[in-house]
Amino acid sequence: MNKRRVVITGMGAVTPIGIGLQEFWQGLMEGRNGVDLITKFDTSKFDTKFAAEVKNFDPLNYLDKKGAKRLDEYAQFAIGSSTMAIEDSGLDLEKVDLERFGVVFGSGIGGIKTLRDQHFAYFESGTPKKISPFFITMMISDMAAGQISIKFGLKGPNYATTSACATSSNAIADAFILVQRGSADIMISGGSESAIQEMSVGGFNSMKALSTWNDRFKEASRPFDADRNGFVLGEGSASLVLEEYELAKARGATIYAEIVGIGLTGDAYHVTVPAPDGEGAARSMKEAIRDAELKPEDVDYINAHGTSTPYNDINETKAIKTVFNSHAYDLVVSSTKSMTGHLLGGAGAVESVATVLALKNNKIPPTINLTNPDPECDLNYSPLKPTDKKIRVAISNAFGFGGHNTSIVFKKVED
Q1: Of 165, 195, 234, 198, which is closest to residue 47 (Cα–Cα)?
Q2: Residues paired with 405 in a beta bridge
Q3: Which domains does the chain have, with CATH numbers?
Q4: Per-residue pLDDT for 2 more than 80?
Q5: Is the pTM of this model over 0.85?
Q6: Residue-wise pLDDT tens digits, 312-321
Q7: Rounded to whole angstroms, how far apart are CA atoms 109 and 73?
Q8: DSSP string for 197-217
Q9: Longest dimension (CA), the chain
Q10: How far is 324 from 335, CA to CA, in rounded Å?
Q11: Residue 342: active-site member
């Protein structure tokens, strides 16, 4: 089968450090810290009282009042980032074959706030008549994909992915495959999450996954640092427009980067703990590089999964060393989760946008709060400030509970 080339022609982001590409990129370059005390619920009884919330998001910029009321916040974020991405792409939807334009868009959790609110509506009233007729469609995690399709009239492939923290990287990988094999010409892809709610924070606290640095919360997200003690929950969304290269070139589109390879593997090991020495993560990077028909030494930058948890950061570092050998010390690695927190199902998409912008601008975002490096994490993580580096090839990693591993290779476009 003749594989078609797939490029990125539009992007949009709703993040804790900025809404829109310009503000998001500026936030990355400034090392802006998106972490603050939680405002969405009373945290007095919780071990963790902070998170990275999205600030100043107004759904009415993207939806009418009735439409906004019928969407959970995770889907509102998704509509926001997708509207930005389509506008950024310069596509004229009246001139596009909408049957060849699809959506793959994921959420790890879906409408957990809606589930919470409707749970109380029933149990406090004692009658199912209090359950909203929109409850199901607001809660289920495929509805962001469905709503994006409906809003823009996109009639190509349309579905959601759910693979925990690898969710939106899997969505991008699937969209890439669909365009590459000719099932669609254009796809909008990404992920969204709005899970800063009591059950999420309480659940992650119970499994000892979240940082509890309530007195030092601005410093709590510190990937690869010896003092890290858990991740910081974040929220938001990012969307990317993937387009067949010749089509994009013919219409004079601005091309950010080309996706040239993907690696998808399973740990087959444990529901939360990564495989020893990052074995599954190493295989996903190796497979992505093989799929891209590149060599390990061609890679200049890795946007790491980098969660700020004891297990992930060491295992991801070991995986990078396994794949790249001595070149591991020549390339630059960084974790933008140090600024945005961990967006769960939205993480891979937000970090893919960060990776593409780094590639475009030849500037690597910093890993903030990395002040006491873990001796076992001894690579160049662009600590505290951005790194200027000519980038030709970059990888974005995303790994999820359940042993899901996804690596995507982005490359500067060459004719």
Answers
A1: 198
A2: 265, 399
A3: 7-250 (3.40.47.10), 262-411 (3.40.47.10)
A4: no
A5: yes
A6: 999 999 999 9
A7: 12
A8: SHHHHHHHHHTT-B---TTSG
A9: 65
A10: 18
A11: yes
Catalytic residue among 165, 327, 377, 404: 165
Q: How many helices (H) and strands (E) does the chain have?
A: 13, 15
State both tokens at 377.
Answer: 């994490």
Q: Is the pLDDT of residue 403 over 80?
A: yes
| Residues 271-299: tens digit of each pLDDT | 999 999 999 999 999 999 999 999 999 99
The average pLDDT across 36-51 equals 98
Residue 372 structure tokens: 């006491």
Q: Which of 327, 342, 377, 404 is catalytic?
A: 342
CA-to-CA dists, residue 116 to 50, 59, 363, 408, angstroms: 20, 20, 41, 34
Catalytic choice (305, 327, 377, 404): 305
The H-or-E segment that residue 409 falls in is strand 404-411
Alpha carbons 411 and 415: distance in angstroms, whole number: 12
121 SS3 class: helix
Per-position DSSP letters for 345-358, written without gaps between them: GGHHHHHHHHHHHH
In this structure, the number of other CB atoms found within 10 A of the CB of residue 196 comes to: 24
Q: What are phi and psi of 389, to 5 degrees?
A: -160, 135
- Work out the angle between the directed axes of helices 279-291 and 310-324 (0-180°, nearest 10): 40
Q: What is the pLDDT of residue 415?
A: 66
Cα–Cα dist 145/159, whole Å: 6
Per-residue pLDDT of 180-215, as tens digits, reads 999 999 999 999 999 999 999 999 999 999 999 999
Count how many Cα atoms sit within 13 Å of the Cα of residue 230 in the half-sphere of its side chain. Answer: 20
Give residue for tokens 């797939």. Answer: 6
- Asked whether 380 and 329 are in contact (CB, 8 A), the reply is yes
395, 399, 107: which is closest to 265 by C-alpha?
399
Mean pLDDT value of segment 141-146: 98
Q: Are 83 and 96 in contact (CB under 8 A)?
A: no
Q: Residue 25 burial (CB < 10 Å; 0-12/13-18/19+)?
A: buried
How would residue 414 be classed by pLDDT, with cut points 50, 70 and 90?
confident
Which two structure tokens, joined as six digits, stand for 191?
């992920």
User: How far apart (Å, rounded) are the C-alpha atoms in residues 18 and 1?
Assistant: 41
DSSP string, 272-308: SSPPGGGHHHHHHHHHHHHHTT--GGG--EEE----S
Phi, psi of 388 (to 5 degrees): -80, 125
